[in-house]
Design a protein that fits this description.
With 352 residues, the chain is α/β, with parallel strands linked by helices. It contains twelve helices and 13 strands. Helix 4 crosses helix 5. The chain binds 1,4-dihydronicotinamide adenine dinucleotide.
């Protein structure tokens, strides 16, 4: 395997690996280990070019630094990307990837991401111990979706408290976009709390299930932005808060699991604020997954009760974000960035 280090300003270590035998082309980026070893998922994607893969790994690893800093996981930010078609996945490819991860000596710890699941991570683990996200039986923390959904649900309450003075969901309407791993569980929590659900998904089977099992009202995927609701919860794609959708929203709060919801982090956060809509920054409200995997690295190993207790800290973090935004007259997204910067400046001892 040929591993080549790349000098990238502001990043601790960025490297590219290439191996003919396994067909591996991949990048690992460690943005920061200031608060602990860097942790972030392994994404497999048929990138159009090496430049596109590098750009993605740099952006994603930096985002992980902030996500973990604000969530106080005691971890730094890193990420890896494998340049491949999902159809060409093989054990040899992931074993090779494990050797690449091993080269980082524990400064980068990997986990699941797009197109990489538990069976793939098992192959990675044959070459390195620096892997999280395996099943509880295997010493991991299991699928992070439950922790993510619980965190988002609790975060919806925190956002409602800021916007309306009450966390109560009973009788309120929540419009959920995307009923996948996280959206479906979130919808279940919300229904249990007495909320009225309006849902949309491209997958009609998932929609029908929510209608049958949770009493949800279904709308066409493109209509979810127009639903009159208390909370709009994007749980599908990134970039859904943009010039076209923001003017259409008829909600008090946007709070959902999807990563990178704002197409433009500054301008679209400002647009929401100008419309009087409270936005829960995605990487703060959806941190349940990283909090959960982070708990695998504790000295005593993973403990579900401890992990859930930590996930219950998400509303307090959001409250801190909203209070800062209010006090400084800035968007919650900008306030979250400031909290991340402050945690990084304080260093490991300040991040308990
Ligand atoms: P998933 O792939 O299981 O579910 C996504 C759902 O959205 C699918 O049912 C899909 O059909 C639907 N969808 C796609 N395009 C749509 C559209 N235009 N309109 C309506 N529905 C649409 O993904 P998962 O795991 O539930 O994650 C959802 C979001 O949360 C993603 O953005 C993910 O990056 C983010 N996230 C997930 C975490 C996890 O623990 N799974 C952790 C942190 C963030």
């Amino acid at each position: 395997m040929r591993i080549t280090d790349l000098e990238v300003a502001g990043y601790e270590r960025v490297a590219r690996a290439e191996e003919e035998a396994s067909g591996l082309t991949a990048y690992i980026s460690v943005h920061s280990t200031r608060l602990g070893p860097s942790l972030g998922g392994m994404r497999l994607w048929p990138y159009a070019s090496d430049e596109a893969a590098l750009e993605d790994v740099l952006r994603l690893s930096r985002a992980m630094t902030y996500k973990s800093a604000v969530a106080r996981t005691g971890l730094g930010g890193g990420k890896s990307v494998v340049v491949a078609d999902p159809e060409d996945k093989s054990e040899a490819l992931f074993e090779a990837m494990g050797r690449f991860v091993a080269d980082f000596g524990g400064t980068y710890i990997t986990a699941e991401d797009v197109n990489v699941g538990i069976p793939d991570l098992r192959a990675v683990r044959r070459s390195t111990e620096h892997v999280t996200g395996l099943t509880v039986e295997e010493g991991g923390g299991g699928n992070p979706r439950e922790a993510t959904a619980l965190g988002v649900f609790l975060g919806v309450g925190a956002a409602l408290l800021e916007a309306t003075g009450s966390t109560e969901l009973e009788g309120r309407t929540i419009a959920v976009q995307g009923l996948g791993s996280v959206g479906r569980l979130l919808a279940g929590h919300a229904a249990e709390a007495g909320a009225r659900l309006v849902v949309a998904d491209l997958n009609t089977e998932r929609v029908e299930r929510a209608v049958d099992e949770l009493g949800a009202q279904a709308v066409a995927p493109d209509q979810i932005f127009d639903v009159e609701s208390d909370v709009f919860s994007p749980c599908a794609l990134g970039g859904v808060l943009n010039d076209e959708t923001i003017p259409r929203l008829r909600c008090a709060v946007v709070a959902g699991a999807a990563n990178n919801q704002l197409l433009d982090e500054t301008r679209h956060a400002e647009q929401l604020r100008a419309r009087g809509i409270l936005h829960a920054p995605d990487y703060v409200i959806n941190a349940g997954g990283i909090i959960n995997v982070g708990c695998e690295l504790r000295p005593g190993g993973y403990d579900v009760e401890y992990a859930m207790e930590r996930v219950h800290g998400i509303p307090a973090t959001l409250a801190e974000v909203f209070a800062r935004a209010r006090a400084e007259g800035i968007t919650p997204f900008a306030a979250a960035q400031e909290l991340g910067d402050a945690a990084l400046a304080a260093g490991p001892s300040g991040s308990g």
